[in-house]
Amino acid sequence: MNKLNNFFNHLTNISISLIKQFLIIFLYIIMNIFLSLVFFKDIKNSNLCNILISLIVFIVFLLIFRKSIFPKVNDFKENGKKYIKDNLKYYIIGLFIMVISNTIINIFISPAANEVNAENILIKLPIYSILNMLIFAPIVEELMTRGVLKDTFKHLTTYAIISGLIFGFLHVMFSIGDNILELFYIIPYGILGSMFAIMYYKTDNIWTNIFYHFLHNFLCILIVFISMLLGA
Predict the structure, then answer these.
(1) CA nearest 140: which of 58, 50, 48, 74?
(2) How many angstroms separate the Cα of 113 from the Cα of each of 49, 127, 174, 179?
(3) What distances in angstroms separate CA 47 from CA 8, 52, 55, 61, one per listed residue?
(4) To the nearest 5 percent, what fractions of the chain are helix, strand and coil?
(5) Which DSSP string corresponds to 144-165?
(6) pLDDT digits (tens, 9 = 90+) for 119-151
(7) Over the stretch 60-108, which tens digit does the pLDDT of each residue have?
(8) pTM > 0.85: yes or no
(9) Virtual CA dihedral for 57, 212, 105, 225, nearest 10 degrees?
């Protein structure tokens, strides 16, 4: 009887966590759509309008996840170097598998719309794009895809897979309406997302995966600018 009660309690906790995760993603989508409509006239050409949209979303998510992020600052100051060193292997593994899987998918499908859009925005709105990719996105995306489910899914593999799938979906959800095959890009994004989830699981400090998310985006920006210089 106790085992049955424990099972149903665990199932209830999982259901509640998944509902919370869904609501968080829904809030993120609704806020971006609403704010995009508010700034519709200037959103395509204005660094300032896009920065304001990202800043508002950023502040809201900081408030929602304040207990997950602010108390961990001092721990990261003290142990950050160790966390970064210990988890470098996960980033390298994730990056390697991401590049390989992305290359294979590119053979059969056009490049990921998310990557193409990110490069176009970086060229057209560099100030906004750099701020978003290096500050807003790493923090908001990590809070949104790691913080809700970690305490519910105690098994590392289960947590990493689910968190990775959510992370992957977030990067293709705005483009699958135009091309359903974009769903395949959940694989490379999801692999990297799973590695970030492992980092959070092992350190219990979300600043670790925020750091590697920042590093990854920084490298992506660097590659785009180097490609532009070489192509000039």
Answers:
(1) 58
(2) 22, 21, 9, 9
(3) 50, 9, 12, 21
(4) 85, 0, 15
(5) HHHTTTTTT--SHHHHHHHHHH
(6) 888 889 999 999 999 999 999 999 999 888 887
(7) 999 999 988 999 999 999 999 999 999 999 999 999 999 999 999 998 8
(8) yes
(9) 80
